UniProtKB/TrEMBL annotation, chain A:
The keyword Transmembrane applies. Residues 44-147 form the Nucleoside transporter/FeoB GTPase Gate domain. The chain crosses the membrane at residues 127-147, 159-182. It comes from Ruminococcus albus 8. Keywords: Membrane, Transmembrane, Transmembrane helix. This is Transporter gate domain protein.
UniProtKB/TrEMBL annotation, chain B:
This is Putative spore maturation protein B. GO terms for cellular component: plasma membrane. InterPro entries: Gate_dom, SpmB. Residues 42-136 form the Nucleoside transporter/FeoB GTPase Gate domain. Keywords: Membrane, Transmembrane, Transmembrane helix. Pfam families: Gate. The chain crosses the membrane at residues 6-21, 42-64, 114-136, 148-171.
Amino acid sequence: MLSFIIVVMLLISVTAGCLNGSWEDISASAVSACTDAVELGVFLGGSMALWCGLMRVAERSGLTAKLSAALSPVVRLLFGRLDDDSRKAVSLNLTANLLGLGNAATPTGIAAVKALGKGSRPKRNTALLTVLNTASIQLIPVTIAALRAENGSAAPFEILPAVLVTSLSAAAVGCVTAAILFSGVDKDARN
Amino acid sequence: MRVTDMIVPLMIMFILLYGLARRVDLAEEFSAGAREGLQTAFGLIPMLVLLMTAVGMFTSSGAAEMLAALLSPVTEWLGFPKECLDLAFIRPISGSGALAAVSRLFSRVHPDSFAGRTASVLMASTETTFYTIAVYSAAQRKKPDSRIFIAAAAADLTGFILSSLTVRLLIQG
């Protein structure tokens, strides 16, 4: 999928180059983008190291577990009655998302869908969890804040309220859509 | 002074203090986590080289502007900045691709401009939808239910529309 998109982007770029003669710009950015990429990776290393270090401390001190226990009423509201394993896995996954763990949230999500797949209403609950993950509700968007600071933003975190409102609304719309689309879908499986 | 500027320092202090109170070996555990973070970030670099080259060529060729011009009736109606269109396209498909697009955007417009802020909110409040769906259905060894795509697309679309709207209402004031 990704390979396909890269090739399409390159084809479009070259076509545009033929149309408006922007060859000079295209070749300049083709040779400069690779060093930008290495700079970006090294630069991201700093903020990711800080955050992953803090998260490891939070996990070892039991803070992450506390937060996920605090989330369990929300989990009950969305997913209905769940067995213990599923509820824990789902809360842990939502916690990882809230803390903005990104890639590190993926393993918790995998554990959660596996548990949900075995429980009651597997299709509906899997869909709900997927939508909650794709809407990415996060308290502290670390990566983007670091990028903003690097590029001269006066207030890298000024976006926090907008991010929260946007991601919560997106999650709500996704959950309602999923709940409607999947209502009654799991009935046959239960009987 | 803004409240949002206080959150991160306070959170860092709180996490470390709580860890200390629970007798966590701060230096040891922090470095172990930080090492993982560094590995993740450095591991992204090879992919970023390819993607940033593609995104760089795409945006400097003028193709993004052509696409934006084509879609301008829709985006103008929604009040969505045209500079963020390529980001909106690549965001659901590739996380590192979106990173490349934002980084490229910030070298052209200031992060505190309307387009810069919208890109920031868009980046932070949406995810790589297709990747997430693919990974989760693979974990269950099932083909993804097509209805999941509809629900996720509804969420993404809400995110796109609200990113510029919330910037205008909550930040620009």
